[in-house]
Orotidine 5'-phosphate decarboxylase
Amino acid sequence: MNTPIIALDFREYETVKEFLGQFDEKLFVKVGLELYLSNGPKIVEEIRQMGHDIFLDLKLYDIPNTVGKAMEGIGRLDIQMTNVHAQGGTAMMKRAVESFKDGNPDGKLIAVTQLTSMSDEMVAREQQSVLTLTESVVHYSALAQNAGLDGVVASPLEAEIIHEKTHSDFLTVTPGIRLEEDSNDDQVRVVTPEDAKKMKSDYIVVGRSITQAENPVDKYNKIKSIWEGSTVG
Ligand SMILES: O=c1ccn([C@@H]2O[C@H](COP(=O)(O)O)[C@@H](O)[C@H]2O)c(=O)[nH]1
């Protein structure tokens, strides 16, 4: 069972250090735009030195040459996972995978399909899509697989159908995770860790439920034990 990925959506390195200092185990953490843009690549080195694995979530989306060049830089970082937007297309994803794996052959490159903050209605109205949200996620997953990527970011709601339509190692990395007790926010496609497990997500990504909790370590352990199917605290 893959450990839950904690989204470190903080700005300051000091806050990250304080947050991670509460844990006495190796974690898988996500560094997103807020933290990376405020601190630069050194934040990756610092977190790696603390012994944690990193998903660098920059969601690159540009023309193939630009993404390829940016991925050369990302490929030199000591990270376990990074991503692009599948909507950038096959040529862009192929360039991304070539450039990233050249520097980091063991790192995973995945593609965002439809953000978990999007609803069926938003996809229909704002993207003017003739496909439903789920069809669109399946379509982008197929593009990502054919371009040679390792998996996708989607909601657990789509994990099962993605697994049906892709090869057996293709990964589903799924944010939008909330416990029943958590408050509603900008996430639309929200799923509990228990349901994410039933729906066959490979990884869950959890941010504010843990980072904003009164006791982040207790909350992480609670989510982890539900996800792993052991004691539900
Ligand atoms: O579709 C997506 C893609 C990425 N994310 C990121 O995951 C975390 C979720 O944080 P929460 O606080 O648990 O909502 C956040 O960093 C997003 O940028 C996503 O939510 N949905």
Observations:
- The chain is about 45% helix and 15% strand.
